[in-house]
Design goal:
By secondary structure, this protein is mainly α. It contains 19 helices and four strands.
Amino acid sequence: MISDLFAKKPLAMMLEEMKGENRLRRVLGPVMLTSLGVGAVIGTGIFVLTGVAAHDRAGPALILSFAVSGMACVFAALCYAEFASMAPVAGSAYTYAYATLGELFAWIIGWDLVLEYAVGASTVAHGWSAHFQDLLKTLGIYIPLAFSGAPFDFNPSNGSFLVTGTFFDLPAIIITAIITVILVIGIKESATINATIVIIKVAIVLFVIILGIQYINPENWKPFAPFGYSGLSFFGHPILGSAGPGGIPVGMLAGAAIIFFAYIGFDSISTHAEEARRPKRDVPIGIIASLIICTVLYIAVSAILTGMVPYDKIDINAPVSNAFGQVGLTWAQRLIDVGAIAGITSVLLVMMLSQARVLLAMARDGMVPIGFFGDVHPKFRTPWKSTILTGLFVGTMAAFLPLRVLADMTNIGTLLAFVIVCTAVLIMRKTHPNAERPFRAPLVPLIPILGILTCLMLMFSLQVENWWRLIIWLLIGFVIYFSYSRKHSIMARVRRGEVQAFPDVPQAK
């Protein structure tokens, strides 16, 4: 029946499932959770995507692009925090959608999160490789061309693809393999390593700001918005502003759309709610604190970068370190490369960590085979099989796809996830107005509506190819859902009487 597609999973059932043998360890406090958020955010946005966004889409107006993306994230983050306090279980937006919008929407968002985290991690692995090779070059060491990058690239000046003369990106494969091993060993060890790296890279970011401000040339900010302040389009047709070569939207909003990926750290925090010691309090703290810290640092570094180097001279693969090299500070370039390598490593760790947790949540619900994706290691208490599969997938994509393609693919999935979470908050406030909410998003319905509108605006600022990739990805997902997931889902088993149905969302007394 059609109604079965929209069957909602009671929150009480989600909480009950955590009591089984396959629950994860509660070892993360607010500092660790904030560190995981900062670990996922600070790195990719500052050290990788600033180059692509400034060079191809926004110019110095990248400063405003980060502000716009940050504003959209504030709206979504408040909605995430409300749900994370209500449902402290693994799964993030997937779990929230199952409780509010029903099974089909849960599958859509879960499948979308696979795209978001896996492709996002591949983007990060590519950025790690670029900085690692940039550091080696300053030391006079060169990786053979055949193993230094993706075999093809996209040329935004004429909208065409070109052959690079390489076979695959070897450093990206190596770092992905190392992170996979770390993640299999355990969440506590992974979080500790991440916290150490976060301290290092925040120090490097502050170093970039303090030293770089002395080398700003205000003339580099002129014109401030060479591509314009808009960039809004609808399936490749400009609505506000114009499109560049190949129909790519350009402008400040187009820049905001491409660097939006850099903010998904707070999203990853909610995937670890089941591993938080006091999730109803600590997860909202981690989400909001990490977002505030990272937004301030992003805006500062983008101002430094575009002030030091003309936007059309910014290197897209290692923008920040290369900028210091262009002003003659080779020693600083090396130091920043080391910090970037450390920072991007923690981003890769958190994104791959989050991917496995989403797959675990889907496996518990029967959406994917639980014997594989839901298998928690008896010693390490981690979803080790899905972690290894994630590593193989990420390593393969990072080895063969270029940065520009990977970055664009990630953003539309992230934005769709945020739209669904904001929508889910509106629905839950109507359907369960008295449910316990340790954290409540303020100014509802205004905040969720603004979140939906700003995220849709940024989605429409992406080039049309991203919409087609998303549609194809979702069609593949529908095939899996209707051939496997619908028959094996937890709610299908409840309807057949194989599983006990639990009461609906607990009401506050």
